[in-house]
Design goal:
CATH class: Mainly Alpha
Number of domains: 1
Number of helices: 7
Radius of gyration: 17 Å
Distance between the termini: 51 Å
CATH topology: Vanadium-containing Chloroperoxidase, domain 2
Strand content: under 5%
CATH architecture: Orthogonal Bundle
Order of helices and strands: HHHHHHH
Largest sheet: none
Structural class: mainly alpha
Helix content: 55-70%
Shape: elongated
Length: 182
Amino acid sequence: MYEIDATLTGWINALAGDTFPDRIMVCVSAYGVPLLVLVVAANWWSGPDRLKTRHALVATGPAFLLGLGINQIILLFIDRIRPYDAGITHLLIAPSGDPSFPSDHATAAFAIAAGLLLHSMPRRGLAFLAAALLISISRVYVGTHYVSDVMGGALTGVLAAFLIKSLYKPQAALDRFITGVL
């Protein structure tokens, strides 16, 4: 299984080569998640059903944080070397000091996308899903993650979104307070 993962990772990273797409992927890798968070915040005042929209937007925050928290627990048990340290990829960005699995970028992006999709916001959710896929591919392209790292991160993000969906109910007192702001 590792051989397949390493081969796929190497193929994606081999597309890099001091070209214009390299610069785009480096930017997506660096700024993709913060940009998604800004877009979530900007959607606070949009949509015909503001309370439903706001409930979904608020739910993405705890899903994002829970996903990253789950990753920290996983890191206690799995200490995977980065693909550039294993000689599989060449790195286009600064090296990271933490283990490779799972990808926090993929977790965050997929938690947001899944949160919107689970809260019946298909248009926004699919747009965020496309962005999450691009961010995940960029992490492999720039050489910092294996394909399975971003897949694991995506799974963690989706799991976190499901957990938050089951816990954070619309029209509960907390929800009415938060969604009523501004």
